[in-house]
Amino acid sequence: MSNEEILHEKPLVVHESDHASHEHHKQSFISKYIFSQDHKMISRQFLVTGIIWAVIGGLFSVIFRLQLGFPDQTFPILEDLFGHWAQGGRLDPEFYYALVTMHGTILVFFVLTAGLSGTFSNYLIPLQIGARDMASPFLNMLSYWFFFAASIVMFSSLFLTTGPASGGWTIYPPLSALGDAMDGSKSGMDFWLASMALFIISTLLGGLNYITTILNMRTKGMFMTRLPLTIWAFLFTAILGVLTFPVLLSAVVLLLFDRHLGTSFYLSDIVINGKILPNQGGSPILFQHLFWFLGHPEVYIIALPAMGITSEVISTNSRKPIFGYMAMVGSFFAIAILSFLVWAHHMFVSGLNPFLGSFFVLFTLLIAVPSAIKVFNWLTTLWKGNIHFTPAMLFAIGFVSLFISGGLTGIWLGNSTLDLHLHDTYFVIAHFHLVMGVASMFGMFAGIYHWYPKMFGRFMNNTLSYMHFWTTFIGAYLIFWPMHYEGLAGMPRRYYDFSNWESFKMFAGLNTFISIVAMIVFAAQFLFIFNFFYSIYKGRKLTEKNKNPWAGTTMEWTTPIHPPHGNWIGEIPEVYRWPYDYGKDGRDYIPQTEPIGAEEKQH
Amino acid sequence: MIVAMNKEKKIIHPLKFVMYAACASIVMIFAGLSSAYLVKRNQGNWITYDVPVIFYYSTAIIILSSVTLLLSRRAFINRQMRQYKMWLFFTVVLGFTFVLLQYFGFKELWASGITITRNVSFSFLYVIVGVHALHVLGGVIALLVMYLKSHSRKRKNYDQIYIDLMNTYWHFVDFLWIYLLIFLVYIG
Question: Tens of pLDDT along A49-73?
Answer without folding.
Answer: 999 999 999 999 999 999 999 999 9
